[in-house]
Amino acid sequence: MSATQSRWFRRFDSTAEGELTLICFPHAGGAASAYLGLSRALAPDIDVAAVQYPGRQDRRTEPALTSLPHLARAVAEELTRFPQRPYAFFGHSMGAVVAYETARILAEFDLPTAQSLVLSGRGAPSRTPRATDRLSGDAALIGEIRRLNGTNGRVLDDPEVLEMVLPTLRADYGALGSYRWLPGPPLDIPLTVMVGSSDPIVTVEDAAGWLAHSTRPGEVLTFDGGHFYLDAHLASVAAAVRSALGQPAVV
């Protein structure tokens, strides 16, 4: 089995021939397609495989998982099912937690794990949980998504589309609200942490807390913008990812 045959991973560039695969974990309510732009920016020397969580896009008929540890375990199990060349993890917002927990599970069972971990738009899990992770009611969910500018406003204004995306949002925010970090050994993986300078829910200090979760040196990178700074700084983010993965810059 290969990543291209797995229901858990989506690839957007068949020309990618690099020796390293970047496994990307989407944000709450997000799908694998959130990483289409990054995949194209990193091709062809870095192969991007974006995780497709259940309950969205081509997996919309499957029930969404409502536990981040269970979601991480499912991804970890899938990664062991096929021969895998060296890989790294990139996770944004909720995806940062899922990527981190996936790496912890692989390390716990002494399985091949990510060579590098890039964590974006999320504070360290050992810090106090965010109040916005415990939203209750559809109106609160919609208001939070509008505040973060994570979904086109016209989508949220379309009743039919909204009906399709709300179950996923409910599941993901429910998973965030119930998630509690369990202390354990730090990872032996280099961490690169990224955050928007005006992110309304993640401070630079919160993001820097991730560095205590690894025995390796790490760095915190700040980009202009809010929670979804990636959209406006794709080229800069891609360059930072290349550097974090030890890949040569594109000239």
TrEMBL record:
Pfam family, one: Thioesterase
Sorted UniProt keywords: Hydrolase
Any single GO BP term: lipid biosynthetic process
InterPro entries cross-referenced by the UniProt entry: AB_hydrolase_fold, TEII, TesA-like, Thioesterase
Coiled-coil intervals: none
Signal peptide: none
SMART domains linked to this entry: PKS_TE (SM00824)
Keyword Hydrolase in record: yes
Record GO terms (molecular function): hydrolase activity
Thioesterase TesA-like domain mapped to chain residues: 23-245
Family, as annotated: Belongs to the thioesterase family.
Name by which UniProt lists this protein: Type II thioesterase
Lineage: Bacteria, Bacillati, Actinomycetota, Actinomycetes, Kitasatosporales
